Amino acid sequence: MGEQCVSAKRSVMMVGEAEHEAAHMDHDHSHSGHSDKHGHSHEHGVSADSDPRWLTIALGLIVTFMLVEVVVGLLANSLALISDAAHMLTDAASIVLAMIAIRLARRPAQGRYTYGFKRVEILSAQANGITLLLLAAWFVYEGINRLINPPDVGGPLVLITALVGIVVNIAAAWSISRANRTSLNVEGAFQHILNDLYAFIGTAIAGAVVWSTGFARADAIAALVVAALMIKSGWSLVRESGRIFLEAAPAHLNPDAIGVRIVAIPQVTEVHDLHVWQITSGQASLSAHILVDDAADCHAIRSTIERVLHDEFALEHTTLQVDHSSDQQVSADDTHCAEAHGPVHRS
Fold it and tell me: Which of 56, 282, 283, 316 is nearest to 181 (CA)?
């Protein structure tokens, strides 16, 4: 009987550094078995060496101004300011959860948690997205009510507060840009703050209109604009976190294209059980069953495939089982993959 070769790679994030181990499983054969080891250095999601100081600065700016904005919004009877404050609350929650994820990233994978706690940030990102959608729905409802029955709004307070908010958001966005933005939480908060800039510009315009013309409905219109931005951001977070929980391939990777590229490698005859998924933000993984010509060196082919996956698709976490084609044709009952998952690619 021929040979079988399996390559498995896993990574564990440790304090201050990423330590990587590669384990290779051997199958019993009448002739021989093989094992090999590889090491790589790379970052994923919220890494343990992320500098939390920049996140802390951004958090302090956001929370301080958010509290001021709530007070002023109530005094000025401005729905636009209160909706801005609610958006900033979700930004603050994202940063807090990202900071917690940084601490959890320092814990090595062990026991039943073989991937550690890397998906904590995805859970928090999804919660953040759902919260945004719920708040947006409430602001849409209130905004429509205020369009029908506009209350008195303090235009000068709205204008001044919105102008200060623009400055605060620029400072917070700059601070977060200095942190590790590969985290879905941190990147989500960064994008929300950029959206807040547009919202504050709209709120400032609304305040100026109310102050100069007395058109109170401008405040409700600005609140509806903020709600639209919240829906956009919230849906994006829910969609991206949902893709990770459903083990979908990252948006920038096409599994079919990867399968076609692998079977284009000389001596590769078939690729099936090809899976591409993410453990957390920026940590894509791949596994596949590869069949090669009977005369091929399965170790050399595996190394070639790993190099292609790394260089062309930036995939570093791979688990490849490489078999000779004849080994998989013993009998219908003895085939390793009687029911392959997903499409089968053949050369």
Answer: 282
How far is 190 from 176, CA to CA, in rounded Å?
A: 6
CA atoms within 13 A on the CB side of 35: 9
In the chain, CATH 3.30.300.30 covers: 4-42+249-346
Residues across the chain: 347
- Per-residue pLDDT of 98-135, as tens digits, reads 777 777 767 777 778 777 777 877 887 888 889 889 98
Nearest to 8 by CA among 284, 297, 318: 318
Mean pLDDT over 80-99 rounds to 83
Per residue in 226-251, pLDDT tens? 889 889 888 988 998 899 999 899 88
Question: Domain 52-245 adopts which CATH fold?
Answer: Alpha-lytic protease prodomain-like (1.20.1510)
Task: Classify 184 in phi/psi space as left (phi over 0), alpha (psi -120 to 50) or beta.
Answer: alpha
Q: Sort residue 45 into left (φ over 0), alpha (ψ -120 to 50) or beta.
A: left
The most distant pair of C-alpha atoms in the chain lies apart, rounded to whole Å, by 90
What are the angstrom distances between the C-alpha of 276 and each of 167, 256, 318, 322?
42, 10, 9, 17
- Give the range with max mean pLDDT: 24-33, 115-124, 136-145: 136-145
Q: Under CATH, domain 4-42+249-346 is a member of which superfamily?
A: ANL, C-terminal domain (3.30.300.30)
CA atoms within 13 A on the CB side of 243: 19
Tell which phi-psi region holds residue 274, choosing left (phi > 0), alpha (psi between -120 and 50) or beta. Answer: beta
DSSP code of residue 40: -
Task: With beta carbons less than 8 A apart as the criterion, state whether 113 and 13 touch.
Answer: no
